[in-house]
Automatic annotation (TrEMBL):
Domain ABC transporter residues, every copy: 4-245
This protein's UniProt keywords: ATP-binding, Cell membrane, Membrane, Nucleotide-binding, Translocase, Transport
Family, similarity comment: Belongs to the ABC transporter superfamily.
One Gene Ontology term, aspect cellular component: ATP-binding cassette (ABC) transporter complex
Pfam family, one: ABC_tran
GO molecular function ontology, one term from the record: ATP binding
Membrane topology: Peripheral membrane protein
Principal place of residence: membrane
Annotated InterPro entries: AAA+_ATPase, ABC_transporter-like_ATP-bd, ABC_transporter-like_CS, ABC_transpr_CbiO/EcfA_su, ECF_ABC_transporter_ATP-bd, P-loop_NTPase
Subcellular localization, as worded in the UniProt entry: Cell membrane
Protein's name in the database: ABC transporter, ATP-binding protein
Organism expressing this protein natively: [Clostridium] hylemonae DSM 15053
Length: 286
């Protein structure tokens, strides 16, 4: 059943002429992993702001159309309540930290405190999550003196500590090095295993291919495509719209142009290797 439902939603930021999102209709279900891709300035972050209720509650501007979360009108929703169910990881790790707490421990505990969780339980929970995300050694550090990768892990910890069901994650690794990126993807992998609902904006489309159930493609504020990940990610037409496709999809096209035909289009590198190893490639002479 649809948990989040948008019907012909158009949103324009204050003082802007052109809408950042145009006529978006879609629904999102609980327990699924959604990959969000598309060219720069396509509207991906704006879409996340909307899911998280920051539009219209934090950003003003003009919102037209209908949107509900769990049947509740987004305009009437209490964003504080929403924030306990739906965690948000921002694109820029440096906007992530509240800045009001002296230690990482207190930073992670902030959400639990707001929920009124008793102190003993809170301490237990923070330590448990810190262990899970391998950030125990950071707990007494100043949150304002962390690296980008550490900040992102602390941000995940805060949300996981609150037992959020839904994670809206906006390009969490765009400013991280490969090691920092891998550690974040370990966390995302873990959340997927736990069956959490995940909406992940990510340019690294090979990662989306590995994890996503469905993919949404934004272009110039419009939802160009939404569907099953395999179908969307193997659509070569997307290349003409400034969207990257997985390496395996590009390789399959090259092989096919050279007379080597795989029985299906692989979307991950593992799948591609598997098809080739099993000798499932056919050969066409041209
Ligand atoms: N706070 C804001 N005020 C005014 N316009 C904005 C604001 N944030 C984004 N925009 C505009 O809205 C459009 C969509 O931007 P958005 O940030 O949602 O795109 P994006 O797909 O996340 O891009 P990127 O891949 O660069 O992160 C752009 O034209 C952008 O300039
Ligand atoms: Mg963005």
């Amino acid at each position: 059943m649809a948990y989040i439902e948008l019907k012909e939603v158009t949103y324009t930021y204050p003082l802007m002429k052109e809408p950042a999102l145009k006529n978006i209709s879609c629904s999102l279900e609980l327990g699924k992993f959604y990959g969000v891709i598309g060219e720069n300035a396509g509207g991906k972050t704006t879409f996340c702001n909307l899911l998280r209720g920051l539009i219209p509650h934090f950003y003003n501007g003009k919102l037209v159309g209908d949107m509900t979360i769990n049947g509740e009108d987004i305009r009437k929703i209490d964003v504080d309540v929403l924030s306990t169910k739906m965690g948000y990881i921002f694109q820029n790790p440096f906007t992530q930290i509240s800045g009001v707490r002296k230690t990482v421990f207190e930073e992670i505990a902030l959400g639990l405190e707001n929920l009124g969780v008793p102190k003993a339980r809170m301490i237990e929970k923070v330590i448990e999550v810190a262990k899970l995300l391998k950030i125990e050694e950071l707990l007494q550090n100043d949150p304002n003196r962390l690296s980008g990768g550490q900040r992102q892990r602390v941000a995940f910890a805060s949300i996981i500590a609150m037992d959020s069901d839904i994670f809206v994650i906006d390009e969490p690794t765009s400013q991280l090095d490969p090691e920092g990126t891998e550690r974040i993807f370990e966390i995302i992998h873990m959340l997927k295993e736990q069956g959490k609902t995940i909406i992940l904006v990510e340019h690294k489309v090979d990662l989306i291919a590995e994890y996503a159930d469905e993919v949404l493609v934004f272009q110039k504020g419009e939802l160009l495509k939404k569907g099953d990940a395999r179908t969307v990610l193997s659509d070569l037409e997307l290349l003409e719209h400034g969207t990257m496709l997985p390496q395996a999809v590009i390789l399959e096209r090259e092989l096919r142009l050279n007379g080597i035909v795989l029985p299906r289009v692989p979307v991950t590198t593992e799948e591609c290797i598997d098809l080739l190893q099993k000798g499932e490639a056919g050969y066409e002479s041209n």
